[in-house]
Amino acid sequence: MNRSCFHRSRLAFTLVELLVVIAIIGILVALLLPAVQAARESSRRASCLNNLKQIGLAFHNFEDSRKELPLAIADSTQFATNNWAPFILPFIEQKNLAEGYDLKTNWWVTPNRELVILRLPVFCCPSTPIQNRVQDKPETSPPNKTGACGDYFTPSGVHADINNSLSSTEQIDLTGDLRGAITPYSTLNRTNRFADIIDGTSNTVLVGECAGREDVYRGRKFYKVDYTGAVKIRARGGAWATTDNAYDIGQRNPWNASFGTIPGVPKINNSNEWGHCFYAFHLGGANFTFADGSVRFMTEPTPLRTLAQLVTRAGAESVVAP
C-alpha cells in the first residue's frame, strides 16, 4: 500500500518541472511563429500574384476578341460612367455577372448597383488586413456611390507633379507621351492597343496594387475612412467598378485638404491615396502585372523615375523592369 502510493506520487510532475516545460514550449513557439507567419505571407503573396495573372490574362483575352484593350474609363457617351473592370468580367469567370451588368448605365445606379456591391476575390489581395470593405461615398443627390472594394488599379499615366519629387537630374520630360497602357477615353485616346505600347510589353505596367482603400494608409499607419468629418479622410477609388480606380502616379494631394499633404515622396508602399503611387501589404514591395502578361514583385527601393518609365507606354526610355 505504501509502496503503491509512493510509486504514484513519483509519476506526477512537480510545479518546477511543469513551469520548465511551459517555458520551453513558449520558447519553441516564439522561435517558430515568425517562420509560420513568413510562410503564410509567402502564400498570400503568391495568391495575389495569381490574381494579377488572371487579370492580365483577361486583358489579353479581351484584346483577342475585340482587337483592342479596355479603356481605363469608357466613353461616357457610349457606355455611361464605367471603368475597365466590368468589361473584363466575362474573362475572369464572371459571365453571369457580366450578363446582368448594363454598360450603358453608371456603375453605382440600378441594375449595376446590386452587382458592384459583390466582393470579387480576384480583385482582392489576400494580404490586405481588412478584406470586406465597402465604398459608400455620399453624393449631393442619391444614391451614394456604393460598391465592394478591390486592391488593384490600372496606372493611366504619369502626372506632371512627379517632377516635384524628383531631383534636377531625374526630371521627366513632360512634353513626351506620359500615358499608360490602360488610359481613359478622350478625343486623343479613343482606343488602347498593344501596338501603342512602343516601350515594349515586358517593360510596361498594366495593373498594379493600391490596396486597402477606401481607408487610408500612410506608411503603415492606418486612418479609417471618414467622408463627412471635420478632417475628411479617404483613399479614393476603392470600389472595383469606380472610375476613380485608374489614376496618374506621382501626386501628393489628399482627397480633401483638411487631411494634409501626403508626407514623403511617391514610392512603393508610402501611401495608398489616389494619384500617389503603388501600395501593398507585402513585406518590402508590391505585385504588378505587365502588358506581356507576366507578373512580378518590385521592391520598395525601386526609384520613382524607374516606376514612371515602367508606367508610360511610349516614353521611349531605356529601362528594364526589375
The backbone outline, from C-alpha atoms, is globular
Low-confidence stretches: none
Q: Widest sheet: strand order?
A: 3-5-9-10
The percentage of residues in β strands lies in 5-15%
Largest sheet data: 4 strands, antiparallel
> Based on helices, strands and strand pairing, what is the structural class?
alpha+beta
Give the ordered list of helices and strands. Answer: HHHHHHEEEEEEEEEEH
**Total domain count:** 1
Mean pLDDT: 93
Helix content: 25-40%
Please tell me how large the radius of gyration is.
24 Å
Report how far the terminal alpha carbons are from each other: 78 Å
Number of strands: 10
Report on this model:
27% of the residues lie in helices and 12% in strands. By secondary structure, it is α+β, with helices and mostly antiparallel strands. It has one domain (40-311). Strands 3-5-9-10 form a 4-stranded antiparallel β-sheet. A two-stranded antiparallel ribbon has the order 1-2. Strands 4-8 form a two-stranded parallel sheet. It starts with a helix and ends in an 11-residue tail after the last helix. The model has no long low-confidence stretch (mean pLDDT 93).
